[in-house]
Specification:
There is one protein chain. This protein is of the alpha+beta class and about 130 residues long. The protein is globular, with a radius of gyration of 14 Å. The protein starts with 9 loop residues before the first strand and ends with a helix. It is built from four helices and nine strands; from the N terminus they run βββαβββββααβα.
Length: about 130
């Protein structure tokens, strides 16, 4: 597998990555997910202030070959969205773990972090999916 799996991030089985800073979580889709979608042409992000439960659809990602969803990895409030994606959705392809981040959440249930995957656990799930 020629995908990136930065060790300092957490992952979900639905292909989101999460970076924690204080009580804020930055979320995007993984390198694998952006490869599967292909060239991303549009990202519909939620509005700041919206509150989502873990597991709900927070954003829609449209590519030339499919439409995917960004699934909330944690319950919480959207405190920031990546406004650069409106004009440059391809940032998700070129920099999925950097400039291609999608939302920042102020999460409300600390125990939900325990359900997230390490890079090694995420790799194992991917290997089962791919084979």
């Amino acid at each position: 597998m020629d995908y990136e799996f930065p060790d300092h991030l957490k992952y979900t089985s639905t292909h989101e990555w999460i970076r924690f800073e204080n009580n804020i979580a930055t979320v995007g889709i993984t390198d694998y997910a952006q490869h599967q979608l292909g060239d991303i042409v549009f990202v519909e992000l939620p509005e700041v202030g919206m509150v989502f439960e873990k597991g709900s659809n927070a954003a829609e990602i449209e590519s030339v070959k499919a439409v995917g969803d960004l699934i909330m990895p944690l319950s919480g409030e959207i405190i920031e969205i990546n406004e650069n994606l409106a004009d440059n959705p391809e940032l998700v392809n070129s920099s999925p773990f950097g400039e291609g981040w999608m939302i920042r959440i102020k999460y409300s249930h600390l125990d939900e972090k325990d359900d997230l995957l390490s890079s090694e656990e995420y790799k194992q799930i991917l290997q089962k999916e791919i084979h």
